[in-house]
Specification:
Elements (H helix, E strand, L loop, with lengths): L16 H14 L4 H5 L2 E6 L11 H14 L3 E6 L13 H17 L4 E6 L4 H12 L3 E5 L6 E3 L2 E3 L3 H11 L5 H8 L14 H12 L14 H19 L4 H4 L2 H13 L5 H11 L7 H9 L15 H6 L2 H9 L15 H4 L26 E6 L2 E8 L9 E9 L2 H7 L12 E4 L4 H4 L11 H5 L6 E4 L11 E3 L19 E5 L4 E4 L3 H6 L13 H9 L16
Parallel strand pairs: 1-2, 1-3, 3-4, 9-10, 10-11, 11-12
Antiparallel strand pairs: 5-6, 7-8, 8-12, 9-13, 13-14
Bound molecules: FE2/S2 (inorganic) cluster and magnesium ion.
Pfam families: ILV_EDD_C, ILVD_EDD_N
Family: Belongs to the IlvD/Edd family.
EC number: 4.2.1.9
Length: about 575
C-alpha cells in the first residue's frame, strides 16, 4: 500500500519519480484519464472470462455492475485479466494449473497499481487460486463469483450439472437411455450461464468463501442470471472502495476461527472433497496448518443440513431462495466462532445478526434438530494403505460399503483403467475394490478420475456403487464410495504402489480405517509399480512436478507456502 491513493501517489520504477509520473500520466491520458481521475483510489477488478470457461460467460455484465458500484463510491475501476481455468475444457486437469493461476494473480495484485481488488471467479479452481493469491499478496480484497446456473428439465425431470450428467450417463451405459435420449439430455444439463448448480466444487468454494468472510452475504448462491447477482456486483464495487478507506487485508481478516467456520459450512453443505485441499492451501499461505484430522473433527460435530445434490436432492438456486449462506450460518450459530472478522468490517456474528433459518416455508436448509443427514459427511481415513491419510465423502456414498472387505482390482493409470474397466474377462463383482494409482499430484496433477466408472457389465446388472480408491480427486458433483487423495501418492512410494490384484483391502468408515491386508514381509518382497511424473522436462510442469506438495498439505508448490 502507498500512503496516497490512486495513480498520483504511486512509486516509481524508472529511477526518476517525476519522470515516472509524467510517463504514466501520458499513457493513461491516451486511455482518456484526466488529472481528476488519477487522484481517485483504484479498484482492480480481476476478469476471468474466456470462451473456454463457459460458466463465466455472463461475467462481462457482472463487471459492468461492479464498475458502477466503484464509480458511485468515488473509486476508479481498472479491469485486468488473468488466466481463466475452465473445468471442462482444460487438459489434463485444472488442478495442475491452480497454483500457476495463483502465482499469476499474486504478481498482478502486487505489481500493478491498485488500492483494493474485486476477485471475480466462479469455476472450480478460479476461486481457490484467487484466494491463495490474495492471502500471499495481502492487499485489501473482496471476492465475488458469477453465481450458479439455473436448472434444466427433461421429460418432467429437473436436471442440473453435473450430478445428473453422471447419473444420466450411467443410465446410458447401463442401457436405460438410448442415443437419441442422451442427446436430448445433453441440451438440458447446462441451460443458462453460471457455475454448476449442484453442491460441486464451484458452489462449495463459493459457500466456503462466504463463510470465511471474504464475500458479501448471499454472494455464494444468487443465480448467475438473477438481478440479485447484479445488485451484489454493484454492492461489491462500493464495498471495495470502502475497504480502501478502512484497509483490512485477507491476512488480517482470516484466522483459525475463520477456517473453523469454513470447515463447519463445508460439512453442513455436504460439500466437495476438493475444498479440503483448497482450504488447506489457502490457510498455509498464511502459516495456518489445517490437518485431515481437523476436517474430520469438525465434520463429526456438524450434521448435514443442506439438501443439494449430490448429498441431497436440490440445487443452489433453491438454497438461495431459502436464505443462502446467511440462513445456514444462522442455523449453525452454536457451532460457529462468531468473533471471526469479515471483509465488511463486522464480525461474522454481527453480519448474520438478523439472519434466520425459517423452515416454515422451505426445506432446503434444515435445522440442527432435524438435519438432513448425520454428522460426518466427510471423513478422514488412515491405515496401512494411506499412512498420511485419505478422504471419503460419506454423504455422497451409498452407505452399503461403509464397512467392507474385498479383493483389489488394480489399474496402473487412468489410461489403463479406460482400456480395461469394461473387460468382462476381469470377472469383477460389486465386492471388488477398484484401485487406481498414479493419478496423484506429482504423477498426474490430480485429475478428477477417482470416481472410476462401474464396469459396464455390472452397471447393466444394476450395480451403481463399488469401493474405489485412488491418489487422485473426484468432481464435487460425483457420488459413490470413492476414497480419494490417498497419501503418499503411488508415484512417491506410497503403499498404493505395492497393491496387487486380489489383495484384500478393508474400509471401515466408523473406525476411519483403510488397510491393505497383506503382511509386511510380503510387501517388503514386492517391487513398487513404475512411478509416473507429469512433465518433468521443462516449463511450468517441471516447476510443478519438482515442488508440488501432497494432497493433505494442500497440493500447493512448496516454495509458496508461508510455513
Ligand atoms: Fe465451471 Fe462446473 S464447469 S463450475
Ligand atoms: Mg468440478
Amino acid at each position: 500500500m502507498t500512503d496516497q491513493k490512486g495513480f498520483a501517489g504511486r512509486l516509481t520504477s524508472y529511477g526518476d519519480p517525476g519522470f515516472s509520473k509524467y510517463l504514466r500520466r501520458a499513457f493513461l491520458s491516451s486511455a482518456g484519464y484526466d488529472a481528476e481521475d488519477l487522484e481517485r483510489p483504484i479498484v482492480g477488478i480481476l476478469n476471468t472470462t474466456s470462451d473456454y470457461t463457459t460458466c463465466h460467460r455472463d461475467m462481462p455484465q457482472l463487471i459492468e455492475a461492479v464498475k458502477r458500484g466503484v464509480l458511485e463510491a468515488g473509486g476508479l475501476p481498472f479491469v485486468f485479466s488473468a488466466m481463466s481455468l475452465g473445468e471442462i475444457l482444460t487438459n489434463p486437469t485444472t488442478m495442475l494449473f491452480r497454483n500457476l493461476m495463483a502465482m499469476e494473480v499474486e504478481e498482478q495484485l502486487g505489481n500493478q497499481p491498485m488500492d483494493s481488488v474485486v476477485l471475480l471467479g466462479g469455476c472450480d479452481k478460479t476461486v481457490p487460486a484467487e484466494l491463495m493469491a490474495a492471502v500471499s499478496s495481502d492487499i485489501p480484497s473482496i471476492a465475488l463469483v458469477v453465481g450458479p446456473m439455473m436448472t434444466g428439465n427433461w421429460r418432467g425431470e429437473r436436471l442440473g450439472a453435473c450430478t445428473d450428467c453422471r447419473r444420466m450417463w450411467a443410465d446410458y451405459r447401463g442401457a436405460g437411455l438410448d442415443a437419441e435420449e442422451i442427446a436430448e439430455v445433453t441440451q438440458q444439463l447446462c441451460p443458462t450461464s453460471g457455475t454448476c448448480m449442484v453442491m460441486g466444487t464451484a458452489s462449495t468454494m463459493a459457500c466456503v468463501t462466504e463463510a470465511l468472510g471474504l464475500m458479501l452475504p448471499t454472494g455464494a448462491t444468487a443465480p448467475a442470471v438473477s438481478s440479485d447477482r447484479l445488485r451484489l456486483g454493484v454492492r461489491t464495487g462500493r464495498e471495495a472502495v470502502r475497504l480502501i478507506g478502512d484497509p483490512v487485508t485477507p491476512r488480517e481478516i482470516l484466522s483459525e476461527d475463520s477456517f473453523h467456520n469454513a470447515m463447519t459450512v463445508l460439512s453442513a453443505i455436504g460439500g466437495s472433497t476438493n475444498a479440503i485441499i483448497h482450504l488447506t492451501a489457502i490457510a498455509r499461505r498464511m502459516g495456518i496448518r489445517l490437518t485431515l484430522e481437523d476436517f474430520d473433527r469438525v465434520s463429526a460435530a456438524t450434521p448435514l443440513l443442506v439438501d443439494c445434490k449430490p448429498a441431497g436432492k436440490g440445487y443452489l438456486p433453491d438454497m438461495h431462495i431459502a436464505g443462502g449462506v446467511p440462513a445456514l450460518l444462522a442455523e449453525l450459530k452454536p457451532l460457529l466462532r462468531l468473533d471471526a472478522k469479515t471483509v465488511t468490517g463486522k464480525t461474522l456474528g454481527e453480519l448474520i445478526e438478523s439472519a434466520t433459518n425459517d423452515t416454515r416455508w422451505q426445506t432446503t436448509i434444515r435445522t440442527l434438530d432435524e438435519p438432513l443427514g448425520d454428522p460426518g459427511a466427510l471423513v478422514a481415513l488412515k491405515g496401512s494403505l494411506a499412512p498420511e491419510g485419505a478422504v471419503l465423502k460419506v454423504a455422497a456414498a451409498s452407505g452399503r460399503f461403509n464397512t467392507h472387505r474385498g479383493p483389489a482390482a488394480v489399474f496402473d493409470s487412468q489410461e489403463d483403467l479406460e482400456a480395461r474397466i469394461d473387460d468382462e474377462s476381469l470377472g469383477l463383482t460389486e465386492d471388488h475394490v477398484i484401485v487406481l494409482r498414479n493419478i496423484g499430484p506429482a504423477a498426474a496433477g490430480m485429475p478428477e478420475a477417482g470416481s472410476a466408472p462401474i464396469p459396464q457389465y455390472l452397471a447393466k446388472q444394476g450395480v451403481r456403487d463399488m469401493v474405489r480408491i485412488s491418489d487422485g480427486r473426484m468432481s464435487g458433483t460425483s457420488y459413490g464410495t470413492v476414497v480419494l487423495h490417498v497419501a503418499p501418492e503411488s508415484s512417491k512410494g506410497g503403499p498404493l504402489s505395492l497393491v496387487r490384484d486380489g489383495d484384500l483391502i478393508e474400509l471401515d468408515v466408523e473406525r476411519r480405517v483403510l488397510d491393505l491386508l497383506v503382511d509386511e514381509q510380503e510387501l517388503a518382497r514386492r517391487t513398487p509399480s513404475e512411478p509416473r511424473a507429469i512433465g518433468r522436462e521443462r516449463g511450468y510442469r517441471k516447476l510443478y512436478h519438482d515442488n508440488v506438495l501432497q494432497a493433505p498439505e494442500g497440493a500447493d508448490l512448496g516454495f509458496l507456502v508461508a510455513d
